[in-house]
Description:
TIM Barrel; two-stranded antiparallel ribbon; 35% helix
Amino acid sequence: MDANIANIQHFSVGDGDGIRATLFFKGCNLRCPWCHNPETLSAAPVTLNYPAGAQICGRRMTEDAIFAELTEDADFYRESGGGVTFSGGEVLLQAAAAAKLAARLKAAGISLFIDTAGYAPFSAVEALIPFADAWLWDYKTASPQKFRDTVGGDLSLVEENLQKLLSEGASVRIRIPLIPGFNTAEEDVSLICARLKEFGITKVDLLPFHRLGSGKYEALGLAYAYRETPPQTAEEKSRLRKLYENYFTVTMES
Ligand code: SF4
């Protein structure tokens, strides 16, 4: 079975423990305006026009070709406590192909993390449960209205999936992107914390805002809503960290 792939990033260090290879699946069914991987959103190939030349993002790869590329660095994964992370786009939209690959990685003794926004039928989550060592689960807002109006989906599906995944005993790491003007006001944070507490969450990973995707929007000829939004200051990061620490053990990416 082949899969629609945006990119394979080798020696990645921001997508889980140790040195990892990140497999970016192409296509996402949400539209977060801060998304820093805009080239992965459409399931169709897209062209990024950089000053140095054009790059096409999006190709179908066979399961064998993906597996061969992902296992090239297996020694590094083992030595560093790393492995492979499935990301995107949204991996759950290609759950059948992802599960086949995941089964092969597990058989090869390679750790697998799943980085997802969780917006798909639970059957897609379920297909990956036997093979995932950990889930990196995005939680963006506890407001159904904000989720619908800004992200473009039904929050209850994400929450139901999260609850079911937790009830299966899966290792789930909640990752919260800190988006200025969207989820960083005290009332937004309180709502998120209260909701996650209801799910029994005890630890969260905070992802400060950055504009690293800005160049990709330009290369795609797309407007970027956060083009002029500065990254959070140290004080603002500290404020947010303290708010979350009232409820959770917190880690924050730099
Ligand atoms: S869910 Fe992730 S990939 Fe999809 S639009 Fe949001 S940030 Fe981008």
